[in-house]
Specification:
There is one protein chain. By secondary structure, the protein is α/β, with parallel strands linked by helices. 43% of the residues lie in helices and 13% in strands. It has a six-stranded parallel β-sheet, sandwiched between helices. Strands 10-9-11-12-13 form a five-stranded parallel β-sheet. The radius of gyration is 28 Å and the shape is elongated.
Length: 440
């Protein structure tokens, strides 16, 4: 197909040459005449391993060319990939001016050139843009009343996952392809365009595709910072942190895995809270700052506080808490965020009833029992023998358990607000009136 690439920087050049190498007719567009001249001569305007050869080969084969003339590039093109810069402004907000200039230039040029044979042109954002940009900026730019006769435009988001220094390798071996569009024509077109890649295609809505790139980059930054913080503290203990992290990365079950990467409620239990405190104490003793680790504890506290605030904001007085232990299928209450939540709601004067299919106070012993008594001395008054009993008269239900008995009773309840801290309750519960996810 005929493809137009707007922006011949790192992302645009690699994308243009990569697609051209697969037989597509690609035209790169840039306002910088020097970049256009370089590509026209078969020379890459960016430095990346393997990109010089790729540009030279595709230009020589006639599958890649460059121009500053938007109309020339758009004539009969089926898809445009926008790969321009989206830098930060003074206060950190994203500068979308380069994107909007391209959109305006495209719309103006459409009045002077031929539409693709299908009559539908797909405008695909590949630059990193904030969630909502597609709906508030891109789609309105091509509203039907703003287009010349014969043109129809569909919009989409297809984020890139290229690292500078190995961008060509990443282009041909991405972790996945993400197509953000709800329009079948554009979904099929992009699946075909990137069909040569040996990876799955995730079809999502536009805001999800926009958000994914930010989530990925933030996680990458967190990983770098985490490794550096571990290095700062352990190096003071005569420990080679490189070896520590090398072995840590061998754990594909918990460490380098989807485990724990689900939005939900706060963490708790007998390990994570105390071990974070111990690590922070060790760092203070060694005069080492660990802001990421410190912020982790603070962020965890905000999760509990947010749920308390949301319950209070309803102005309802009768609350049911389904699930009390720090994790399902265990009766461990040590530093359970659900237990902490119950204590705070009781402290605010609310009527709280609790049901947990596993927790039985008469079977608790040792530190587990002492922790429960320190938090809720009169817990027996709050605990119900069945989910139906706990739900009776409840106006707000906070669900931390996905036990079948809990879900069945919840589906029959008349609660006005159902706040899900579990994230795995299924359609039966998520379709209830008043359902809210704690962070989704």
């Amino acid at each position: 197909m005929k493809v137009t690439i707007f922006g011949l920087g790192y992302v645009g050049t690699i994308t243009a040459a990569g697609l051209a190498s697969q037989g597509h007719e690609v035209v790169g567009v840039d306002v910088d005449a020097s970049k256009v001249e370089l590509v026209s001569r078969g020379i890459s305007p960016v430095v990346e391993p393997g990109i010089d050869e790729l540009v030279a080969e595709t230009v020589a084969a006639g599958s890649l060319r460059a121009t500053s003339d938007v109309a020339d590039a758009l004539d009969r093109a089926e898809v445009s990939l926008i790969c321009v810069g989206t830098p930060s402004l003074m206060r950190g907000e994203t500068d979308l001016s380069y994107v909007t200039r391209v959109l305006d230039a495209m719309r103006e040029a459409m009045g002077r050139v031929r539409a693709p044979k299908s009559g539908v042109h797909s405008v695909v954002i590949r630059s990193t843009v904030p969630p909502g940009t597609g709906a508030s900026v891109v789609a309105p730019a091509f509203a039907p009343e703003r287009l010349p006769p014969g043109w129809s435009v569909e919009t989409a988001m297809c984020p890139e996952f290229l690292r500078e220094g190995c961008g060509v390798e990443d282009f041909f071996n991405p972790p996945f392809v993400v197509v953000g569009s709800e329009q079948p024509h554009t979904r099929e077109l992009l699946a075909e365009l990137f069909g040569f890649l040996d990876c799955g295609v995730h079809h999502v809505d536009v805001p999800t595709a926009e958000a994914l790139k930010y989530a990925c980059n933030a996680f990458h930054a967190v990983k770098i910072t985490f490794a550096n913080e571990m290095g700062r503290v352990f190096s003071q203990c005569a420990v080679d942190s490189r070896r520590v992290m090398e072995i840590l990365c061998e754990d594909r079950k918990l460490n380098i895995a989807p485990a724990y990467l689900r939005p939900g409620f706060a963490f708790g239990g007998s390990c994570l809270p105390k071990d974070l405190r111990a690590l922070q104490h060790l760092a203070r003793h060694l005069a080492v700052d660990l802001p990421l680790i410190s912020a982790t504890t603070m962020s965890n506290e905000l999760v509990v506080r947010n749920v308390v605030d949301r319950v209070l904001a309803t102005e309802h007085r009768h609350v049911c808490l389904l699930g009390l232990s720090f994790k399902m299928n265990t009766d461990d209450l040590r530093e359970s965020p659900s237990l902490e939540l119950a204590e705070r709601l009781v402290g605010k004067g609310l009527e709280v009833r609790i049901y947990d299919p596993i927790v039985r106070p008469d079977r608790l012993v040792g530190g587990n029992l002492r922790h429960l008594q320190s938090k809720l001395a009169h817990v027996n008054r709050l605990l119900a023998d069945s989910p139906e009993e706990a739900l009776e008269g409840a106006e707000v239900v906070i669900v931390a358990s996905s036990h079948p008995a809990v879900l069945g009773a919840l589906a029959r309840s008349n609660a006005q607000v159902v706040l899900d801290t579990n994230g795995r309750l299924g359609d039966l519960v998520e379709h209830l009136p008043g359902y809210e996810g704690v962070s989704w």
